Amino acid sequence: MAKHIGAETVVFSKPVSIIAAASTAGTKEGEGPLGKLFDRVLTDNMAGEETWEAAESAMVKDNLSILFEKSGVRPDFIFAGDLQNQCCGTNYGVKDIKIPTFGIFDACATFGEALALAAMTVDGGAAENVAAGVSSHFCSAERQFRFPLELGNQRPQTSTYTVTGAGAAMVSNKDVPPYITAFTIGKIVDYGVNDANNMGAAMAPAAAECISAHLRDTVRAADYYDLIVTGDLGYVGKELLLQLLKNEGIDIADNHTDCGIEIFDKASQDTHAGGSGCACSAAVFAAMLYKRLKKGELNKILLVPTGALMSPTSIQEGKSILGAAYAVAIENGVIKWNI
């Protein structure tokens, strides 16, 4: 059973497995370093639909179908979300699947939230299998949160590129590694950043708070993990994160990477500070990290999806962008917690 330890962390005394993961990527993402690892790469970011929003919903539906096929199960529930208002990308994507769905939102941290909720649901016996999935689309996100693409605004070097794609994982009570062994629910952090083109600075403080809390609650050193992987900080946020943690006496420089850095090639793809978006952490996890765990190349990772909480209204009103993060421990061994 699960138990709340410390201030922000939940641990599991019995295995909660991730039995499959699926990823879909857009055209630009498919041209990046992980292009050959995605389950599906779009040949057209419209995905055969008439709008970008409909294209995102098509990715949601197709990616979940890939997950169901790879896992060999049809889940009891789905936890999923996206960046569109009222989670419309998810809702239109799952409407024909006919599986009970929880629509959730925590901006780009949504995949971490989905994994945490799915794990608790399985651990509590409410379901045997739960799908956790997210999506995002560069064009729909830009239209909603920043500027219409038709304006052709020049993006500053601090800006990240919203990942077009979808990622999902099947959380199960089957005793198969890798396991979700714990997760930490980060606090909402306000660092006073109000620049919608500098997501890394807005999210890094929340990532630092969440990682620090996780290590403190679990009484683990940073080097316990083979990798600590943040979701969407990019190059700007990564440097800020390292400094913030260093100020607390925590050094993760040797075992940290960021999904927003992994998914694009900075030199050749002109993505400025890197990648972001709900699909950033989920697609990188499904395409690369999960496979490395299954192969035993990695045995213990801390996945920390990060989110910038804002709305079109809050940005227009000049409010600061709040940061959120979830730290999910995923390990190949079953952990015997002293609970």
Outline the fold blueprint.
Blueprint (H helix, E strand, L loop, with lengths): L1 E4 L3 E4 L4 E9 L1 H4 L9 E2 L10 H20 L5 E5 L6 H7 L6 E3 L6 H14 L5 E8 L1 H8 L15 E2 L2 E8 L6 E7 L3 E2 L8 H20 L8 E4 L3 H14 L8 E3 H4 L3 H4 L5 E2 L1 H18 L4 E5 L1 E4 L2 H5 L5 E10 L8
Parallel strand pairs: 3-4, 5-6, 5-7, 8-14, 12-13, 12-15
Antiparallel strand pairs: 1-2, 2-10, 3-9, 7-9, 10-17, 11-17, 15-17, 16-17
Helix pairs in contact: 2-3, 6-7
Summarize the structure.
With 339 residues, the protein is α/β, with parallel strands linked by helices. It is built from eleven helices and 17 strands.
Key terms:
single chain, 339 residues, alpha/beta, Peroxisomal Thiolase, Chain A, domain 1, six-stranded mixed beta sheet, 17 strands, globular
**Oligomeric state as shown:** single chain
Write the CATH fold name of the largest domain. Peroxisomal Thiolase, Chain A, domain 1
Q: CATH superfamily of the largest domain, called what? A: Stage V sporulation protein AD
Total domains: 2
Which percent bin holds the helix content? Answer: 25-40%
